[in-house]
């Protein structure tokens, strides 16, 4: 039985990847290692917790003793590494948390994987999940390709860029078999309400202001999270060892247009008649070092592996809003406690 370690599987994207693998591959044993930070939540994967081919391990990828113990015990054949500190605004406040988990945690995993399999890497894989933010910012035109030079601007993207370099270096130096993918902004169910879309959905539900940074002309490419999980599945099974792939939605939106589309859809779903949710929009102080535009050229994965997004954006957004409206308890649970302090610090003028 193939033994696969998924890190960060209680987070947003990791929970979708864990669910996909557990349900689709009963012949694999899936181990989900997660520290359960503020962003990790066992509710995200409660539907698979009783599956025979699934086991949850609470732990920190920075804990070398723990990694030694679990690698010795379960002899993971492959890793899909998603555990990370993932929010740019938090990286501006606490950069060291990002260095610890994203850089040192990744190197710990690489070391342990190398030590476990160094005599025979056949059939093994270290799959590293990364972001398009490592490439920095685009101007009004152009796209990130796999050949674009790294040019990170935030502590988050710098820490992810560093982790990508370490993965590649372990490939070159020790022959460790790896694949890296760099994906654009994900959206969908189970995303923590600190990122743009779930934050604004939460605020609209509660008639709170929608804090748009700067003039709102910043541009992102958006991909439905299940399409990302599907791309990871395809790449994981592709034998494209030593390759990097960009994954994107072919779906660019200026923040302000995206927020207006969100407001329009929510007005219909909430049957708002008198005033539109748009009246909640407030332009607030900009994020320092805010990248102007991200846009992915995902033609390599399309050409090599025939992957392309399957969910149309307006449909994906509608599914996402419905999920949050139908899971108000989930929202309530994750926005109690620490969240309130975070919100106050981040959004008080
Ligand atoms: P998330 O913040 O929702 O989840 C991260 C998970 O990692 C949480 O469950 C958390 O508990 C866990 N974790 C954090 N530190 C840990 C540690 N030290 N040890 C073990 N577990 C730890 O993040 P996400 O949005 O699901 O992102 C997952 C991965 O995908 C990250 O590597 C991120 O850089 C990458 N990515 C995210 C996006 C996006 O739009 N969200 C886009 C491209 C790439
Ligand atoms: P975010 O969801 O934090 O993702 P990233 O910074 O990784 O792209 O932000 C998406 C865009 O939305 C980004 O340009 C910043 C902007 N934004 C706001 O305008 N207001 C907010 O409150 C947040 C969280 C983000």
Description:
The longest helix is centred in the first third of the chain and has 23 residues, at 95-117. The protein contains twelve helices and twelve strands. The chain has a domain at 3-187 and 222-247: Rossmann fold, CATH 3.40.50.720. Helices cover 42% and strands 17% of the residues. The strands form three sheets. Strands 3-2-1-4-5-6-10 form a seven-stranded parallel sheet, sandwiched between helices. Strands 7-9-11 form a three-stranded mixed sheet. A two-stranded parallel sheet has the order 8-12. The protein is α/β, with parallel strands linked by helices and 349 residues long. The mean pLDDT is 97. It is globular, with a radius of gyration of 20 Å. The protein starts with a strand and ends with a helix. Strand 5 (125-131), helix 5 and strand 6 (178-183) form a beta-alpha-beta unit. Nicotinamide-adenine-dinucleotide (NAD) is lined by residues 7-8, 10-14, 34-37, 39-40, 60-62, 82-86, 101, 105, 129-131, 160, 183, 185-186, 192.
